[in-house]
Amino acid sequence: MSADEAGAGTVVVWNEALLGYDLGDHPLDPVRVELTMALARELGVLDRPGVRLVAPDPAGDDLLGLVHSERYIEAVRSAGSRRKPAEPATEWGLDTPDNPVFPGMHEASALIAGATVAAAEAVWSGAAPHAINVAGGLHHAMPERASGFCVYNDPAIAIARLLERGARRIAYVDVDVHHGDGVQEVFYDDPRVLTVSLHETPLALFPGTGFPTETGGPDAEGGAVNVALPPGTGDAGWLRAFHAVVPSVVRAFQPELLFTQCGADAHWLDPLADLRLSVDGQRASYLALSALAEEVCGGRWVATGGGGYALVEAVPRAWTHLLAIATGQPLDPALPTPSGWRELAHRRRPGRPAPESMTDGTPPRWQPWQPGHDPDAVDRAIIATRKAVFPLLGLDPHDPRD
Q1: Annotated catalytic residue: which of 68, 106, 139, 140?
Q2: Does any domain span residue 2?
Q3: Listed residue (148, 175, 143, 208) closest to 303, CA to CA
Q4: Per-residue pLDDT tens for 189-203?
Q5: What is the residue range of 256's domain?
Q6: Number of domains in the chain
Q7: For residue 1, what pLDDT band results from cuts at 50, 70 and 90?
Q8: If pLDDT is split at 50, 70 and 90, which confidence band does 162 have?
Q9: Peptide bond into 207 cis (omega under 30)
Q10: pLDDT digits (tens, 9 = 90+) for 230-270
Q11: Which residue, of 46, 57, 208, 338, is most buried by count of CB atoms within 10 Å of its CB?
């Protein structure tokens, strides 16, 4: 189905119950989602023509079971209900500092997964060309283990659901500062899914995977693409790396749908990582992803949030730009943030000043990658990825046109 034949507008999967994924006194605070949706609403993004807010249903065990084992699902359910589990929760990666148990954990996690499945099915069915769940993007969860603040892997579940419905080729692009290891793990040997991740080098950051040499299993060589960037990479280097790798591999794969995980933790204020992107650079990445979906797969684009721990300063603005782009009209970066939103941010997080505009004042400028010059650390990361995976996709690692 072409974008012209698909339903108009954008599906935004949302209700306040999604804020129930609350790990307590923890970096992954649902206030980042609350403030995003409040900012988008005050700026009129959610009231645009063609935008449909859809309340999700929780994913049932059948959907969760497309990725997670029955025993793991039962362990999550038991831990969150305070029932005595068959095995200690820590055997499943639960009840740890990263993944503390909380009441209703299964239900909250299943709702996140159901929301992302609803977004994916809206696009696949043709109900809308774009759909987004900013509360989703829990990309570290493994089939039988919680990891990195993630209990159920909603992107992998949604992709698996589309494969079950007949999708033949889906590209997953992950711009979170951490490697999208769980999604890669699930589809590492599946030739129907291309996983692409740009992240801070695993030599410096959790989860310690995502090296350029991770290129897919025996039945899917070239199906995993990893760009491992050095600490300190800012807008110019990050965008150079993105454009040197992502469009080429996605074009070569020719997906029917583009699925993106848009974690905002590559921002320079994020406390858990060491990349140096601005909100303006993140906005530029969302524009590039939107254009790539339009070019390669008829505009079919599913997006989620992900990580992001500058809860007031960066995440709400980044994801409001994402929502604006997904709903058809980018916001002017110079736009002031509404005073009502700043007051809400102050009530939620006293002492953390809310930004007064939608820009960091750093319009992103970058130069396209070119071989043959004296490479810096970012260029070496680009070259390592292109050499490792481009030949497997029929691309020339040395030709900047590929």
Answers
A1: 140
A2: no
A3: 175
A4: 999 999 999 999 999
A5: 10-393
A6: 1
A7: very low
A8: very high
A9: yes
A10: 999 999 999 999 999 999 999 999 999 999 999 999 999 99
A11: 46
Report if residue 266 sits inside a domain: yes
Give me the mean pLDDT over the 55-71 stretch: 98
Residue 7 has pLDDT above 90, yes or no: no
Strand order in the sheet with 257-261: 51-54, 10-13, 130-133, 301-304, 257-261, 170-174, 193-200, 224-229
Average pLDDT over residues 373-389: 95
Distance of CA 370 to the CA centre of its chain: 28
Residue among 36, 129, 44, 47 at smallest CA distance from 331? 44
- DSSP code, position 1: -
Which residue has 């831990």 as its token pair?
79
Domain harbouring 260, CATH code:
3.40.800.20
In a domain, 124, yes or no: yes
In a domain, 1, yes or no: no
Write the DSSP symbol of residue 148: T
Q: Name every residue whose Cβ is closer than 8 Å to that of residue 4 and which is 6 or more positions away in sequence.
A: none
Q: Indicate if the alpha-carbon torsion angle 270, 272, 276, 279 is positive or negative.
A: negative
Catalytic, 140? Answer yes
Residue type, 209: T
Tokens of 318: 């980044």
- 374 Cβ contact partners less than 8 Å away, ≥ 6 residues apart: none
Between the CA of residue 65 and those of 47, 142, 153, 194, 271, what are the distances in Å?
36, 12, 11, 21, 34
Assigned token pair, 266? 């590559």
pLDDT at residue 2, as a whole number = 35
pLDDT band at 18 (very low <50, low <70, confident <90, very high): very high
Which helix H or strand E contains 51, and what residues bound it?
Answer: strand 51-54
> Helices marked H in 52-180 — which ranges?
61-64, 70-81, 105-125, 154-164
Average pLDDT for 153-179: 98
